Amino acid sequence: MRGSTSRRQLLLAWLGLRLLRRLRRRPRGAAPPQPRRAEPPEALERETPSTARAERLAAALLLAGALAAAGFVVLYVVRPDTQLLGLCLGGALVLCGIAAAFAGKRVVPQETASEPYEELADARQVDDVNAIVREAGEGVSRRGLLAGAAGLAGATVAAAAIVPVASLGPAVGDRIAATPWRRGRRLVDRDGGAIRPEDVSEGSLVLAFPEGADRDTLDAPVMLLRFPPEQLEMSAARRAAAPGGVVAYSRICTHAACAVSMYRHPLHPPTAPRDALVCPCHFSTFDPRRAGAVLFGPAGRPLPQLPLQIGADGELVAAGGFFGRVGPSYAGEREGPA
Amino acid sequence: MSGRSPRSLPGRLASALAGRTPLLPRRLRVGLAFGCALVAAALALGALASRPPAVGAQDGDVAGGAPATTSGGAPATAAQRAEGRRLFLAGCASCHGEDARGIADVAPSLRGVGAASADFYLRTGRMPLEDPQDEPRRKESFYDRRQIAALVAYVGSFGGPPIPQVDPAAGSLSQGFRLFAENCAGCHQIVGRGGITTGAWIPGLQEASPLDVAEAVEIGPYVMPVFGDRLTDRQVDSLARYVRWTRQPDDAGGWGIGHIGPVPEGMVAWLLAGTALLLTIRLIGERTTR
Q1: CA-to-CA distance for B3 and A221, rounded, in angstroms?
Q2: Which of A165, A147, A71 is nearest to A107 (CA)?
Q3: Are the Cβ atoms of A110 and B225 closer than 8 angstroms?
Q4: Which residues of chain B make contact with A295, given a CB cutoff of 8 A?
Q5: Which helix (H) or strand (E) holds B67?
Q6: Burial class (CB in 10 A: 0-12, 13-18, 19+), A145
Q7: Residue B289: which residues within 8 A CB-CB, separation 6 or more?
Q8: What is the pLDDT along chain B (290 residues), one digit of tens a residue?
């Protein structure tokens, strides 16, 4: 691993050097190559295209970029809508890029020099480079405006890149682990009606939601399945959470948070694959008889099971929160089958 | 940049209109032509991919609906059951047992599966299987319509759900879409093109008749879950109507790309984005003399 990294770094450095050399000796026109001398480089062809209009336009582009980046910062705090945030940050980068390309073509002097490449880090050449840098501003009248606009654009883009840090660390709190499921919360169908154990028949999948809670959050939807209780291969606590053989699992895949929407139920088990809940995104396959254990696929941990009990009116209610955390896994998070 | 052509756009336009200079520099023209060729190639590819799949019968409903009326509508006669028994012994008993009670680990008992199950498996060619371990797939039916009616009458004589009545015209397309999205699209894909799950193929529904849909929902063939007790007849009508609609869905976006989801759509987006990038590179790049 380390060997390949350093080789990759070497390769990158080599590519960078190649690029630098290409840029430095890019010829233009039919001028013959000139031998290098100690004097500052001689421009064979030099024009200073800068006009007040071009400068104003470049500045305007930079300011527009700055405005878009500032918009990102403001939106992030006030109304974090991902579409608008993306539009702002993308717009800022695109505008700054256009401004840089435009300034390179129409504002700074265009000069062509041809010279053989020599070793870098020669004291005289350092002077030459400094001279080139000094001369780059030649013919540009509104340097202050351009530099200010570029500085503002840079600062706002940097701010837009840094601001999301505010959402990390303590700001996360227990939001990842919290779910609407509490002991005694009733399971309801899409129309809000209570679900009784006998509504869940073997071989069918029933979708359920927490009564009176937001149904659009990752931790809300659960799938109800029924098996003969003696077929459930799980711990006593888990089995107790499946009254009459009715088990509930989170709808959300523990790999990348897709909806686990495929239920494989064999009509004739000896000649067909066994019961499984399958995620259509990357085919993570979970065993509903064995506490949601992973049978196949990229998921690293079982599908969280929701403990159930029978309510006062014979309807299904939650007996507590999920076994395990609902939602996608991050940073290699894994736990064995429960 | 060469100093010959006027820089400003109006100047360039005027010059181009007067026929003195081309509107766009050569570099850009070449780039545009290349881009157009790429887009044309992408469109041609997409057109190939989005050709509607060949549907066996012009109208599968008629083909699928007819046996329903013969075997479901008219009561099965004793002669039919006897004929069915004869065919069963010849073609099915080697796996399902001589009296249809099944053989352990080979094939299930057919007592109580009903006419719905027999009709579905025989009419869609899923049974008989060459090897009981094979996955049943839709193919040309082994038996003709009369033989199927006889076999269905025989298997149906053991009891179980009869062949369902389905009338897509009585269903609602929007309700069918909603039900399909909630219950079926996870496996069959939202416009019924099918796919795979782990360990099994998921059939596309382009050839499925409304009766096929009603029967499959009722019995849950192979690894499909059972929906029979959760859907009303009216809802099944709606589902059948939606499935029929998916054979030639309205392509609101203008281009179906085979209706097989986001992967080909992404490919097209990459092609278009790549073309745009190439154009940009041509526009801002410069040719070096060496």
Answers
A1: 67
A2: A147
A3: no
A4: 198
A5: helix B60-67
A6: middle
A7: A27, A28, A29, A30
A8: 444 444 555 566 556 555 555 566 666 677 777 777 777 776 666 555 554 444 433 334 444 434 444 444 566 788 999 999 999 999 999 999 999 999 999 999 999 999 999 999 999 999 999 898 899 999 999 999 999 999 999 999 999 999 999 999 999 999 999 999 989 998 999 999 998 999 999 999 999 999 999 999 999 999 999 998 889 999 999 999 999 999 988 887 777 888 887 788 888 889 999 999 999 998 888 777 65
SS3 A2: helix
The residue in chain A having the minimum alpha-carbon distance to the alpha carbon of residue B95 is A271
Is the pTM higher than 0.80? The answer reads no
Structure-token pair, residue A137: 């501003």
Say which amino acid occupies B49: A
Which among B1, B104, B198 has CB closest to A296? Answer: B198
Residue A216: is it exposed, middle or buried by C-beta count within 10 angstroms (0-12/13-18/19+)?
exposed
The helix/strand/coil state of A278 is: strand
Lookup result for tokens 């470049």? A58
Query: Is residue A304 within 8 Å of residue A323, measured between CB atoms?
Result: yes
How many residues are recorded in chain A?
A: 338
Of B1, B186, B223, the CB nearest to A272: B223
d(CA B84, CA A188): 46
Q: How far apart are CA B113 and CA B54, in angstroms?
A: 32
Chain B contact present for A261, CB below 8 A: yes
> Is residue B239 a contact partner of residue B188, using CB atoms and an 8 Å limit?
no
CA gap A105, B286 in Å, rounded: 11
Task: Tokens for B229, please give them.
Answer: 């007790």
Closest-approach residue (CA) in chain A for B188: A262
**B282 vs A239: CA distance, rounded Å:** 66
With an 8 Å Cβ cutoff, are B284 and A101 in contact? yes
Q: Which residues, listed in sequence order, are joined to residue B197 by a DSSP beta bridge?
A: B200
Question: Hey, what are A119's tokens?
Answer: 């070793």
Residue B220 with chain A: CB contacts under 8 Å = 203-204, 265, 267
What are residue A94's phi and psi, to 5 degrees?
Answer: -65, -45
Closest chain B residue to the Cα of A296, Cα to Cα: B198
- Whole-number Å distance between alpha carbons of A69 and A161: 9
With b meaning 16 or more CB within 10 Å and e meaning fewer, what string describes A28-53?
beeeeeeeeeeeebeebeeeeebeee
A27 touches chain B (CB under 8 A): yes
A95-131 burial: b if 16+ Cβ within 10 Å, else e: bbebbbebbeebbbbbbebbbeeeeeeeeeeeebeee
B219 contacts in A (CB within 8 Å)?
A: 267
Cis peptide before B128 (omega within 30 of 0): yes
What is the least distance, in Å, from the CA of A119 to any CA of chain B? 22
Place of tokens 């009715």: A246
Write b or e for each residue in A221-240: b if 16 or more Cβ atoms lie within 10 A of its Cβ, otherwise e: bbbbbbbeeeebebeeebbe
